[in-house]
Inverse folding.
């Protein structure tokens, strides 16, 4: 569902950039693909996948800002997700999913930046934010959470979202096992020191 961008105020760089992207894509709508060389098709497919990630990040970033400002209320919407669904004709399920993604990326800056740089795609970013949000807050100091997020982002270079989800579930389990092992070693050392001094 194309939107007429001719009436938009282009003073803000994000609005101007979005209009430029829309106009460029509109100009490619009738461009044939059969004339592409094999290498052109290969490189364009990869580049467009990267662009999808960057557009998704920007869209979620703007959506998070819209939610903060409660723009839905200005048009009688009961929530950002319901306003988005009504205005764009997305299903409510998809609209709510996008708002959740927007809020998550607004919270987890490392993941948002990686998505903006096309180092992740949206599916991977969603899995990573879900994994770090699932970490037990009472047992994970902020520096540990940041390290887990960074580690999963690095793993995204080699693994798809399905494998990242498994790694995300196991990362705390592994850390917990290590922590218990360290605690046991410390207790044994303390017991040994006590025995040596008896």
């Amino acid at each position: 569902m194309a939107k007429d961008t001719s009436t938009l105020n282009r003073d803000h760089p994000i609005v101007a950039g979005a209009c430029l992207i829309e106009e460029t894509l509109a100009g490619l709508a009738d461009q044939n693909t059969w004339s592409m060389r094999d290498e052109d098709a290969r490189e364009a497919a990869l580049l467009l996948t990267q662009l999808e990630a960057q557009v998704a990040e920007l869209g979620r970033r703007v959506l998070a800002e819209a939610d903060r400002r409660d723009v839905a209320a200005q048009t009688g919407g009961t929530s950002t997700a319901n306003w988005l669904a009504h205005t764009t004709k997305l299903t409510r399920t998809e609209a709510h999913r996008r708002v959740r993604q927007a809020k998550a990326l607004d919270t987890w800056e490392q993941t948002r930046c990686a998505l903006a740089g096309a180092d992740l795609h949206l599916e991977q970013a969603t899995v990573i934010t879900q994994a770090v949000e699932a970490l037990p807050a009472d047992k994970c100091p902020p520096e540990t959470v940041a390290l887990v997020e960074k580690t999963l982002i690095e793993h995204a270079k080699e693994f798809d979202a399905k494998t990242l989800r498994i790694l995300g579930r196991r990362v705390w389990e592994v850390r917990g096992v290590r922590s218990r092992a360290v605690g046991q070693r410390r207790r044994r050392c303390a017991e040994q020191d006590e025995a040596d001094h008896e």
Notes: The CA atoms of residues 108 and 129 lie 7 Å apart.
